[in-house]
Amino acid sequence: MTEVEKLDAGLPYCFWDEAVDAQKLNAVQICQRLNAISVTDYDARVAAIRELFGSVGADPVVLPVFNCDSGRNIRVGDNFLANYNVTILDIGPVTIGNDVMIGPGTLITTVNHPLSPKGRREHLGIMRPVTIGNDVWIGGNCTILPGVTIGNNVVVAAGAVVTHDVPDNVVVGGVPARVLRPIEDDTQEA
Asked: How far is CA 102 from CA 80, 81, 85, 172, in A?
């Protein structure tokens, strides 16, 4: 298997591989262009977001400075907002639903590395997808780790580190994040 095939299969892969690195270099160039476009030029920013991401719903907003590993692995729904200084390390799929707001300074990552120093010396990475449901608000300076699924109608409190799946209709916070309380889904008709 090639290193890209290993990556896509969720197997350990070499992140210094030329083909793996080429994905990142393409994303870096598009991110630089996106970050250079004035925040008042909505149409140009949307065009750059659509060029970078794998799929984009209606009315996306991505504020500078935004960085990602691939871009093509990011899929967002309608009314997506990534506030200032958001990083999405999308070496694998990052699927985000409708009406999601991501606070400034947040990191979403699909890449992990071995605990063993030998594996790290071999430049190994391991990919696990991240999924975020609809109507999610991720507060500022949060970290969403590889393999996590966040349900619908979730609030992730500022500074939280999400290490495990999060059910629907809750507020989570802390390091590691844990459920703090349920919240009502007031979008449902009575």
From this structure: 8, 6, 10, 14
Does residue 186 fall inside a structural domain?
Answer: no
Instruction: Quote the number of domains for the chain.
Output: 1
Whether 9 maps to a domain, the answer reads yes
CATH of residue 65: 2.160.10.10
Q: Which residue has the tokens 């609030």?
A: 155
Q: How confident is the model at residue 190 (pLDDT cuts 50, 70, 90)?
A: low
Catalytic residues: 113
The pLDDT tens digits of the residues spanning 135-154 come to 999 999 999 999 999 999 99
For residue 70, pLDDT beyond 60: yes
Domain assignment present for 166: yes
